[in-house]
Hints:
alpha+beta
Amino acid sequence: MALTIQSAQTIFSNTQVPSPIPATIALFDQLNVDDQLAYLWYAYTEMGKTITPAAPGVARLQLAESLLTQIKQMSREEQTKVMRDLASRADTPISRSYGFFSVNTKLAFWFELGELMKQGIIAPIPVGYQMSPGVKFVLEATQKLDQGQQITVLRNTVVDMGFDTSDLGPSSYPKAATEPAFQRTSPVISSVKIDGITEPAVLGYIEAMNADKFDDAIALFTTDGALQPPFQKPIIGREAIAKYMREEAQGLNMMPQQGICEVQPDGSKQLKVTGVVQTPWFGVTVGMNISWRFLINPDGKIFFVAIDMLASPQELMNLRRV
Length: 322
Ligand code: EQ3
C-alpha cells in the first residue's frame, strides 16, 4: 500500500498528550489588542528575570533596520499605533513589510523594539494602559508552563503578527539573498546515539541537522517527503523543506535521548524518538522537550517526520502505544 501523508500524520498519535501551548495561545487570542501587547511585555519582562534571548547579529538586524528607523522617528502615539496595527494584523505598509519577514527576523525586530522600550525610547505599553483581569489570567496560565513552552508561546504570537502576506506573492521589500547565520552556542554533537534506535536515516538526520548541513538532511527524504513542524501543517517536497530549514532550523541543538522502532508488514518503519532541543535564541539555558515521529519507507528514506512539543518531561518516556 502506498504511504500517504494523511496516514503518516497519525502514527503514534495514541502516545501523544495534548500540549498546553495552543490553549494558552487561544486565551491570548481572545484579548483585545492593547491587552495582547501588554501581556507580551509583562510575560517577556517576567521571563527576562531568569532567561534572556541572545542579541541578534548585525546582519539580521539590518533586515529590520528600515522599519526600526521609521518607528524610532515617530511620536509615542504613532509608535503605539504601529504596535497595535502589528498585533491586529492590519493592512498598513509597516505591517505588510513585517509580514514578509522570516520568523527569526520578526523575533529580531521585536527584540530590538524591546531594547528601545527598556531604554525609554519607545513607549513600553500603550499610553495610559491599565492591566485587565484578562491579562492577569493569561499571565497566570503562562506561569504554569515550563520555559520551553513559554518561549514557544512568545514565538508563535510574534510570528502571527503583521499583515498576512501569504497570498501576495514574493516580497518587494529588500531581503538578504540568504538567511543570516546563527552563531552556534555549544559544540556540535557529532556522534549521535539514541537508546533503542539504529535506523541510519534517523541518526543521519540528527547528525546533519546538528551541523546545519540541510542538504545532507534533505537527501535523506523521499522526493515527496514531508516535515511537520510543531502546530503546523506538513511541509511537502524537498525544496519546500529545504527553504523552511534554512529559515528556521539554523543553529538548533538536537539531543534525542530514546526511541522505539516498529517495522511494518510492507517493510516501512515507524519510529518515535524523544529528547531535548535548544534554540540559538536561548542557547543552553532553555531545553524544549520534543518528540520526532518518523515514517521511513522500505528503501530507508524519510517519507514523513513530525516534530511535536511535549506536554511535560514525563512524556519523554511515553513511547509505547497502549
Ligand atoms: C517588546 C515586547 C516584549 C512587548 C511588545 O508589547 C510585544 C512583543 C512581541 C515584545 C517582544 C517579544 C520578544 C522579543 C520575544 C522573543 C521571543 C523569542 C526569541 C522566542 C524564541 C523561541 C524559539 C523557539 C520556541 C524555537 C523552537 C524550535 C524548535 C522546537 C525546532 C524544532 C525543529 C526540529 C527539532 C526539527 O527536527 C526540524 C526543524 C524544526 C525547526 C521544526
